[in-house]
From TrEMBL:
Its EC number is 2.1.1.198. Gene3D superfamilies: Cobalt-precorrin-4 Transmethylase, Domain 1, Methyltransferase, Cobalt-precorrin-4 Transmethylase, Domain 2. One of its GO terms (molecular function) is rRNA (cytosine-2'-O-)-methyltransferase activity. SUPFAM superfamilies: Tetrapyrrole methylase. The lineage of its organism: Bacteria, Bacillati, Mycoplasmatota, Mollicutes, Acholeplasmatales. It comes from Alteracholeplasma palmae (strain ATCC 49389 / J233). Coiled coil: none annotated. PROSITE patterns: RSMI. This is Ribosomal RNA small subunit methyltransferase I. It catalyses: cytidine(1402) in 16S rRNA + S-adenosyl-L-methionine = 2'-O-methylcytidine(1402) in 16S rRNA + S-adenosyl-L-homocysteine + H(+). Its main location: cytoplasm. InterPro entries: 4pyrrol_Mease, 4pyrrol_Methylase_sf, 4pyrrole_Mease_sub1, 4pyrrole_Mease_sub2, rRNA_ssu_MeTfrase_I, SAM_MeTrfase_RsmI_CS. Transmembrane segments: none annotated. Signal peptide: none annotated. Residues 3-202 form the Tetrapyrrole methylase domain.
Amino acid sequence: KPTLYIVSTPIGNLKDITYRAIEILSSVDYILAEDTRVTDKLLKHYFINKKLISYHEHNKFEKEELILKLLSENNHIALVSDAGTPMISDPGYEITQTVMQNEYPVVAIPGASALLTALITSNIAPMPFIFIGFLPRKQSDQKTFLEKYKSYQEALIIYESPKRIEKTLQVIYEVYGNRKISLARELTKKFETITNGYIEDILKTELNLLGEYVLIIEGNQIEVDYNEITIEAHVLLYIKQGY
Ligand code: SAM
C-alpha cells in the first residue's frame, strides 16, 4: 500500500543516518523536503537521485491535496526536514493526520534528534524530562511561559537560536534562579561544545555563541520534608478508605 514515511536525517554529521533511512529514501517515488537545497546535499552525498517536493511551515496545507493525489496514484512518499526528526519543532504533524484519516499507512523511520543527543551529555538526570522546543519570542511571553514550569521537577529541554541564546539565559536566570543547566552547541559537528554547570557561572563565562543550541535546565529540586509527606499520605489513605 502507498505509504508516507517520516524519515529522520542527520543533525549535522552526514553519517548520522540509518541504513534503513537510506534504503527508504532511495526507494520512494517522491521526497517532501523542508528546504530542497539542504536535502539535495544529503541525497548527493549518498548518490540518491529523487524528485523533491518542497513542504514547509508556510505551504504545508496547500500541499495536502497533491500528497493525497500522489498516494492515490500508488506513489510512496518520504518526508524529511532540514535536520533530525520531522515533527520535532519541524513541520509534519498535520500531514500525518490527513494521511492517516485517508487510511494510508504512516511509518516512522527513527534516527537523530538534537533533544536526545543533548540530554545524554547534559550531566542532568535524563528522566523524566519535558521537551518544550522553541520558547515564545517576546521576553514577556517567555517569562510567563517559564513561570508555568517553575515548580516542575522534570528536566526542561529547549531549542534556541544563537541570536537569542544570551537573552534567553538571562530570562531563565531571572525566573528560575541559579539552576544547573547544559548548553549543547553544534552537536555532531566540527565545533561541538557542551557547557555544563550552574547558570550563574555560565553567564559569567565568555562563550562562543555561534551555532545551534539545545538548552537543558535541571528540574526544580525541592527539599523533601518527610514529616509533611507522612501527613499527606495519612490524609490520602483517609480519603481512600471513605472515612
Ligand atoms: N527536527 C530537529 C530535531 O529532531 O532535533 C529540530 C529542528 S529545529 C527547526 C532546529 C533547532 O534544533 C535548532 O535551533 C537547535 O535548537 C536544534 N538543533 C538542531 N540541530 C542541532 C545541532 N546539531 N546542535 C545543537 N542544536 C541543534
